[in-house]
Design the sequence.
């Protein structure tokens, strides 16, 4: 593992928080029910989901030992930022991986985790898919930078 890859692991949380801040208004405009999520909660949800999405994509690129090292860097960043974030990340990973065996698209599962506590209207049912696709498109290729 290179120093650049370690640096990418350390910057993952920052990248996901920037994505959260820059995407909030657009998602709220498209899906008004998401306005029920506070700014801090939105930041936390997307920071965890972005970090988790990137971690879920590591097996495609790294062997088990490299995954362990990079994951440790990500977890350290999360813990320094928010003591509850590591537990939330574990919940995210468990939510997605435990349901991924079915026919459900991974993007849908990622989005469902983000909006699981939001009451979406009938016209907002695409929110989980759209959020999940954005997370995969943004953080899926994180390790290829």
Sequence:
């Amino acid at each position: 593992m290179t120093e650049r890859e370690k640096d990418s692991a350390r910057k993952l949380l920052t990248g996901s928080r920037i994505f959260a801040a820059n995407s909030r208004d657009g998602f709220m405009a498209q899906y008004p029910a998401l306005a029920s999520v506070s700014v801090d909660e939105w930041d936390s949800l997307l920071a965890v989901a972005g970090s988790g999405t990137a971690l879920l994509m590591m097996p495609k690129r790294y062997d088990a030992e490299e995954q362990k090292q990079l994951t440790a860097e990500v977890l350290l960043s999360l813990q320094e930022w928010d003591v509850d974030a590591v537990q939330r990340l574990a919940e995210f990973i468990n939510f997605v991986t435990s349901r991924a065996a079915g026919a459900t698209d991974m993007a849908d599962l990622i989005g469902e985790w983000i909006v699981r506590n939001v009451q979406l209207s009938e016209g907002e049912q695409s929110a989980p898919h759209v959020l999940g696709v954005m997370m995969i498109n943004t953080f899926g290729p994180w390790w290829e930078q």
Observations:
- The chain has a mean pLDDT of 93.
- Helices lie at 3-30, 39-56, 64-81, 85-99, 106-115, 127-139.
- The radius of gyration is 15 Å.
- Residues 3-30 form the longest helix (28 residues).
